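Deliverable D4.2, example record:
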Amino acid sequence: MEEKNIMKFAFLLVLLFFFLYDVFFSFLPTTTNVILGALGVGFFPFLLTKDVKRFDNFPMIFLFFLCLCVYAFFSLSINHSQDYSFIQKELVRAVVLPFFAAYFVALFFSKYSHRFLLNLILLVSVIQCSIIILSFFNSSIKEFVVSFQQMANREESLLTYGFRSVGLGIKFDIGSFYLSITMLISCYLYLLSGSKKNIYIAIWLIELIAGMMLARSIFLGVFFSLLFLLLFEKQFTKKMKIIMLFLLFAAALMFLFLFSPDFYSRYSDYLNWIFQYVIESDHKSDTMKALSERMYFLPDDLSTYVFGDGYFQTEKGHPYRGSDPFYMRHILYWGIPGLLLYVSLLIVLIQKLKKIFLNNQECNSFFIDFLNIFLVLIFCIYLKLDYHFFKIIFLFYWFFLFKELDANAHVFSTTNMINKKIFLDE
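Output generated by the structure prediction step:
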């Protein structure tokens, strides 16, 4: 029985790892998220045939997604564009596949508590951080980690000869943003824990250290995780709150340096050293001001604001007009209406998730607060990159939906069948 439990735990750990971190192994034709998404698509019809009446939230989500698809094709048509990369990346890869991949993964967690799921996410994060830290201090390990992942030549060169570290499926800013989210989860579990608070403090520090080895954007996670604690931890003393406010101020200062070119140009002489702890040999970075000016600019034509230009990337795969942030890339592709539709889908998903969680036996106000801070964190991440975390939202969505169905004695035969196949039954 003990061996069986170890196998069960190991399977859940590996499954969650390759769901959270989209690894593109050199020996596979596609990424792990695409594979999990395909498995989810295959098993999804079984769910619909059994409990289709229970999914009253689907019509609203489907309606928003349908509107996104229609407007995306409308932007292509009105701009006479044939750039279908937006539909492929922002709709299929960012929304559709994560929806089904999260469904498949959540099938195996429905009988566990949400604290078990979140603790497992943190354990996965610690494993990832260990890889990042080891790669940072040992060039042979870094070369090995890079060697069996498919990457662009420029990325591989920066990682091999640069000073930044790398993990499995994460690198640079994207990696630091993932760790920012797990730092927030660490703080949430810290609030729920009794005698194990030190464990979550240690995990938070490990994530901070590993995040700094990836990119400076980790200070976004520092700011929001500390803000979450400051707002909702009732046991902090006055002295602790002063320390927290100081740390928040420092993190906010870092945030301003990252995203405000005017602020940077005015005060860079005083605090420039903060941004130079990551040194890349033979790869001198541009100043923050020049970088920010390339990221943000005003489109030339009014039609761009309304309909976009219908382009998402160049023929070489680079961002259209060289702008990386989510807000700019979406405005340039399908204008402000398309951007608002996409953001609305994200907000609707969070609201539906809150509704499902409030019907759950594990309901607590801290998780609602966590979701609110999580949403704001995503909007801030969008200031820097066009990268999405729908899969985490969908994972919570399916998980709590399955818990609700199980509580009402709607046990999925599909879930039981899968569990038996991989020896997950007790």
